[in-house]
Design brief:
Layout (H helix, E strand, L loop, with lengths): L6 H11 L20 H8 L12 H8 L1
Helix pairs in contact: 1-2
Length: 66
């Protein structure tokens, strides 16, 4: 359930709405290896994940960028 005051909830909604994640899609253009599940998206937000910067504190993101 989406909660606008929860950073992880907001980030999950953002990832689910992203066209390039193919979240639970039935679109014929999406290859089977491209289709993402909720578990895949949560792994992206976990520390070390591809989109962790969406939920990391700003000072943590700044350290990674330097």
């Amino acid at each position: 359930m989406f909660c606008r005051y929860n950073v992880t909830s907001y980030a999950m909604a953002r990832l689910k709405g992203d066209t390039f994640n193919h979240y639970r899609t039935n679109a014929p253009r999406a290859q089977p290896h491209q289709i993402k599940t909720e578990e895949d998206l949560r792994a992206m937000l976990a520390p070390g994940g591809k989109r962790h910067y969406l939920v990391a504190p700003h000072d943590e993101v700044d350290k990674v960028g330097t």
